[in-house]
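Researcher: Sequence recovery benchmark, item below. Answer with residues only.
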């Protein structure tokens, strides 16, 4: 649970009423050019092309409404867009309010790009926003738009950029006296158009982001990670959460160590965020994460990274789970990172190690984090605190027992937490390839779905379907973890046939079979291809090993 020292006392937030105002085109530019209006980087990148921008200007010249711009006025310093194309945006003066665009980024950026004559490279092509034109020979009966990004021969045009930036005298010389009044009318319509704005001032960031998510119903809601990326950005400390997460996953020129090198690169951003929160405020609830001060979050980033690597090392070398794709839940890394942070990254004692192993399999086998994850992980941090003191956490007794019948009745699914816990036990035996006794190399890319190459049906599907029409081949007790090359040698062969073949290429075949929870071929029904006996005997061995992990002896 969050402590009083770490999480501020919840108080009722008094929100000021939104301010409604109209702004002219030039006023918008001045506020962007002075650093007052900012584009927060939790929004999508500028994606409008010239034709979409032309339609926006066309609507303004026709007097159509173009929607309301919503700003969040705050002194919070968020991660924001630094450049639009070839144009650098200014910083907000220190101590001043900034107005972050919550709704209208694409429209405002289009208006600004046209006014500034910005060039943007998109899909390796340069887009020049000075190439948007007003058709001075516009005919309402024949032409859909006054404004276009394509010019036709024998028609007079003036660029919208020139219309906004050049003096009337210069424009008159360019278009001639016949078009002068029309040009002046268009210029006036553009420069005097009233842009409707709503400003919410000094709202807490979680509420401001909720506003953003609600008004952007056509797009994806902001994730907590995206919000925290904006909240924790600090240029002076060179801290950018998005880049730090990428560095954690894949390393960088300056940082060699990475989760990818440890084969734990499937850890999602949300899990990393929760790990920081766990060591900072003893809670992973979203509302508590949002209350973490920028300075505190940044200070705890490196300690979290260090403890997460220690946790990964423990899971790989002590639990012998070599890749993150096998984890019942990626979020298991949160309580494990918490443990090693609180334990000063020291190696666990023998008792702590056994209790951590018990906790790991209890979470997976009982689908612990398949619902109400935040609440349950918060509860489990208390269990970790007991383990730190070498005290046994309390678990429901029926959640610490697995029977052979349970395993035999479990269908195989690569995304099921209970199944993944069983696969972790299979992987922990350091399985050997049956054909040559080499180490099985597991890889995240080969474990994503049930048909992935590291998963092998010991009794091949085709064989079971042919000889056991009432049987189901896709059972977890029929799954072994082997290399793709070994898998290809087996295909649809009967187990009795390919095991006999492998005796010639693998002198240590009996020990290789044992590394997959398979004892004597005769006892396990392999010699006579007895699928039902195989499932029964192997399920009993797997269950016994799981029960040993769930009920350690001290």
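Model:
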């Amino acid at each position: 649970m969050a402590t009083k020292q770490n999480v501020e006392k919840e108080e009722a937030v008094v929100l000021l009423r939104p301010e409604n105002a109209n702004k002219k085109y030039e006023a918008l530019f001045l506020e962007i050019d002075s650093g007052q209006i900012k584009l927060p980087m939790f929004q999508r990148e500028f994606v409008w092309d010239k034709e979409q921008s032309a339609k926006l200007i066309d609507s303004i010249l026709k007097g159509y409404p173009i929607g309301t711009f919503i700003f969040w006025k705050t002194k919070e310093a968020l991660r924001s867009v630094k450049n639009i194309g070839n144009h650098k945006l200014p910083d907000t003066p220190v101590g001043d309010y900034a107005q972050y665009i919550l709704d209208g980024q694409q429209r405002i950026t289009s208006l600004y790009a046209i006014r500034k004559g910005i060039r943007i490279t998109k899909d390796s092509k340069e887009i020049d926003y000075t190439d948007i034109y007003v058709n001075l020979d516009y005919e309402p009966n024949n032409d859909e738009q006054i404004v276009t990004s394509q010019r036709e021969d024998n028609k007079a045009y003036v660029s919208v950029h020139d219309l906004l930036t050049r003096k009337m005298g210069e424009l008159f010389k360019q278009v001639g006296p016949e078009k002068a009044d029309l040009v002046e009318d268009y210029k006036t319509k553009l420069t005097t158009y009233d842009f409707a704005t709503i400003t919410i001032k000094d709202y807490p960031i979680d509420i401001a982001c909720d506003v953003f998510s609600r008004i952007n119903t056509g797009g994806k809601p902001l994730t907590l990670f995206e919000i925290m990326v904006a909240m924790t950005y600090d240029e002076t400390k060179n801290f950018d959460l998005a880049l730090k997460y990428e560095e954690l996953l894949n390393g960088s020129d300056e940082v060699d160590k990475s989760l990818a090198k440890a084969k734990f690169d499937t850890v999602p951003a949300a899990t990393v965020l929760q790990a920081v929160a766990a060591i900072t405020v003893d809670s992973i609830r979203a509302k508590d994460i949002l209350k973490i001060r920028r300075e505190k979050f940044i200070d705890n980033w490196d300690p979290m990274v260090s403890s997460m690597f220690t946790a990964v090392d423990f899971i790989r070398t002590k639990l012998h789970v070599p890749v993150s794709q096998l984890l019942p839940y990626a979020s298991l890394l949160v309580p494990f990172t918490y443990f090693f942070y609180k334990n000063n990254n020291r190696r666990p004692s023998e008792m702590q190690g056994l209790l951590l192993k018990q906790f790991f399999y209890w979470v997976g086998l009982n689908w612990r984090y398949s619902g109400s994850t935040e609440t349950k992980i918060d509860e489990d941090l208390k269990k970790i605190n007991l383990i730190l003191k070498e005290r046994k956490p309390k678990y429901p007794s029926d959640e610490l027992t697995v029977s052979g019948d349970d395993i035999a009745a479990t269908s195989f699914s690569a995304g099921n937490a209970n199944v993944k816990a069983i696969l972790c036990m299979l992987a922990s035996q350091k399985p050997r390839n049956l054909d040559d006794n080499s180490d099985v190399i597991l890889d995240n890319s080969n474990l994503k779905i049930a048909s992935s190459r590291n998963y092998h049906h010991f009794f091949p599907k085709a064989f079971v379907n042919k000889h056991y029409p009432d049987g189901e081949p896709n059972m977890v007790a029929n799954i072994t973890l082997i290399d793709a090359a070994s898998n290809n040698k087996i295909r649809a062969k009967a187990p009795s046939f390919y095991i006999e073949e492998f005796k010639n290429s693998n002198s240590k075949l009996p020990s290789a079979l044992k590394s997959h929870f398979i004892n004597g071929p005769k006892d396990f029904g392999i010699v006579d291809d007895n699928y039902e006996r195989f499932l029964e005997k192997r399920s009993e061995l797997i269950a016994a090993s799981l029960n040993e992990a769930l009920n350690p002896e001290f």
